[in-house]
Specification:
339 residues, alpha/beta, Rossmann fold, 2 domains, 7-stranded mixed beta sheet, 6-stranded parallel beta sheet, globular, binds NADPH dihydro-nicotinamide-adenine-dinucleotide phosphate
Length: 339
């Protein structure tokens, strides 16, 4: 049972050498009386948040527990049920939920809340558009952002798993949408594949304030925050009165011993901005409603989705590290095994 384990707690920027590939053994049989499920992992989701779980820092809010060195990484994935001790699951079911970075996993059924019912779309989509990131984009944009037709929306890390969806949901709502991303290729994707009205490469435009002023001469109504730091600081100067900042993630700050200072927070007061964070897990009850919204749009080509699929558990560490330099183009997925 090949696995990707954390060698030791990580300080600073994540490196491939912080993880190891090890061979373990697993009995492909459920222990007597177990109500767990035995999974064959097929696709694993590479998520920036996983870096937060690699630091030896107990989250003061106790909303997450760090990984244990020597144990496999844990995260979202798509898997096939090999054996089930829980009546809701049976052998052969396809599921998505929380699993481990290894070929086979024994997990409590409570961590695998979703059975995959629609298989006429790529299975890997359940690590993204039809999984946790999809509900994140949907709930964050609609429930927290409360968009109205004609509003001006800015999305950072816009070509990533969540960003590409937020941009497209915003266009379908009749908003004006601009995204930032870290390469020319990604900017082209934003404008020509995902239908953003405009986009810029933040690595080539260090004056983010000027870039935002050019794209939003009348200011931003909704900022969908994925990166934090300097981007947030520049956005604060460009928000409109009564704008909303949807705090989804702050990838640029993950793993930093000292978070970057944000200096323009008084704009929140002068512009009466609502800045609200959210956790996707609170919105899981919306999943059926989200599927109803998104599945037909995928099938009709009204929403497109770009994935970056890397094959083989041994390539997992590099895929994960790449999230922090922007090596991934679209949703970073790790293919562990075919069905
Ligand atoms: P992405 O697919 O967007 O991958 C990460 C991207 O972030 C990279 O490709 C890179 O793109 C960008 N990036 C990395 N480092 C920096 C940096 N220093 N400055 C600016 N951009 C950077 O990830 P996801 O779509 O999966 O996640 C997006 C965010 O949403 C994350 O912060 C994640 O933690 C958060 N999230 C929050 C949830 C919640 O419940 N609130 C649930 C799920 C995700 P580029 O080349 O453009 O720089």
């Amino acid at each position: 049972n090949k696995k990707v384990v954390l060698k030791d707690y990580v300080i600073g920027l994540l490196k491939e050498s912080d993880m190891d590939i090890v061979e373990g053994t697993i009995t492909l049989k459920l222990p007597e009386g177990s109500n767990e499920i035995l999974l064959k992992n097929l696709y694993l989701s590479c998520d920036p948040h996983m870096r937060n779980l690699m630091s030896n820092i107990q989250d003061p809010d106790e909303s997450f527990v760090p990984y244990t060195p020597g144990s496999p990484l844990e995260g979202y994935g798509v898997a096939k049920v090999l054996e089930s001790g829980h009546p809701d699951y049976k052998k052969g079911d396809l599921v998505w939920g929380f699993t481990k970075w290894e070929e086979y996993s024994l997990v409590p059924s409570s961590l695998i809340p979703f059975k995959i019912e629609h298989t006429d779309v790529p299975l890997s989509y359940y690590t993204g558009i039809l999984g946790m990131q999809g509900i994140t984009a949907y709930a964050g944009f609609f429930e927290v952002g409360l968009p109205k037709k004609g509003e001006r929306v800015f999305v950072s890390a816009a070509s990533g798993a969540v960003g590409q969806l937020v941009g497209q949901f915003a266009k379908l709502t009749g908003c004006y949408v601009v995204g930032s991303a870290g390469s020319k290729h990604k900017v082209d994707l934003l404008k020509n594949k995902f239908g953003f009205d405009d986009a810029f490469n933040y690595k080539e435009e260090p004056d983010l304030n000027a870039a935002l002023k050019r794209c939003f001469p009348e200011g931003i109504d909704i900022y969908f925050e994925n990166v934090g730091g300097k981007t947030l600081d520049a956005v604060l100067l460009n928000m409109r009165n009564h704008g909303r900042i949807v705090v989804c993630g702050m990838t640029s700050q993950y793993g930093r011993a000292q978070p970057e200072g944000v200096t323009n927070l008084t704009s929140l007061i002068t512009k009466r901005i609502r800045m609200q964070a959210f956790l996707v897990t609170d919105y899981y009850p919306m999943y059926p409603k989200y599927l109803e919204y998104v599945l037909p749009k995928i099938k009709e080509g009204k929403i497109v989705y770009v994935e970056d699929i890397v094959e083989g558990l041994e390539n997992g560490p590099a895929a994960l590290v790449g999230l922090f330099s922007g090596r991934n183009v679209g949703k970073q997925v790790l293919l562990v095994a075919h069905e």
